[in-house]
Amino acid sequence: MDYGGNYSIPSYGAQGGAGGGGFMIGSQGGSQSNKGNISKASDSLRPCTIKQVLDATQPHPDADFKIDDVDVIQITFVGQIRNISTQTTNVTYKLDDGTGTVEVKLWIDTDSSAMDLGGGGNNNSNSGLVEDQWARVWGRLKAFGNRRHVGAHVIRPVTDKMEITYHLLEATYVHLYHTRGPLEPTGGKPAQMDGGQYGGDDMGGSRVMPNLSPNARRVFQCLKETPQGNEGLNMQHIAASVRMPLTEVAKAGDELLTQSLIFTTVDDNTWAILNME
């Protein structure tokens, strides 16, 4: 499924619904004709949150909705079913994803002998579409009587909770792409943090250093500058070298161990610098 660009990842498919591929970003413009753009827009699928659905803009009643100033035709989102209302012509689900609530209408095919609720069954119980169950929706955003709802093509239960996290990350990525642009390759060295007199290369070359206490910096500097074998330096040797009480050296060592800057060697009181280069 095309989200309007060049990035694609696998998805939890719709199985006969609005498509289930990953999303693609970034190539809607260019030299394509208007006809091509209309076709691309009609085939696009936008992952979003319910808040984005509610905040979507519409220039005029006949216009397509826009999210992040980008036209959206087909949308997909996940939410927890708060209420189910069955009527003669449709089943209405109220979904909540933590960012807002929206009604989702699934129309009943009166020509069919069974009602397809998107989960492969003939009723809510068989399909797993029950209150408090998480579900994924594919459909179109609609407005009627100044109220918005989603006309569902497919709605099915979420059986893997990781799909919820996956979708929120996917929606966040697409939102950031359209609002801040594509990610640029880094390629360079990580930025240096200000480490005071022990920062920069004195604290371990190009690695980004955390904020450390003065005692931890003194212990680290001693480990870095004192000649030693593969086993490193014992805490008592460090205490004598930097003229610090053993208790303070132990606290500084714990701080450095927590930051993964040093590691223990022959025993818990003998340390060496963890070389990240």
Describe this structure as you would to a colleague:
- By secondary structure, the protein is of the alpha+beta class.
- It is 26% helix and 24% strand.
- The protein has a five-stranded mixed β-barrel with strand order 4-5-6-8-7.
- Residues 1-42, 113-126 and 188-206 have low confidence and may be disordered.
Broad shape: elongated
Number of DSSP E strands: 11
Alpha-beta content class: alpha+beta
Helix content: 25-40%
> Total number of helical segments?
7
Pattern of helices and strands: HEHEEEEEHEEHHEHHEE
- What are the low-pLDDT stretches, counting only 5+ consecutive residues below 50? 1-42, 113-126, 188-206
- Our Rg estimate from Cα atoms comes to 29 Å
Bin the strand percentage: 15-25%
The major pleated sheet works out as:
5 strands, mixed, barrel
Strand order of the largest sheet: 4-5-6-8-7
The span between the termini is 41 Å
> What is the mean predicted local confidence, pLDDT?
74
What's the quick description here?
This protein is of the alpha+beta class. It has helices at 34-43, 50-55, 124-127, 162-180, 214-225, 235-242, 246-258, and strands at residues 45-47, 65-67, 70-72, 74-86, 90-96, 101-107, 134-144, 147-157, 233-234, 262-264, 270-273.
Features:
three-stranded antiparallel sheet, 277 residues, single chain, 26% helix, disordered N terminus, alpha+beta
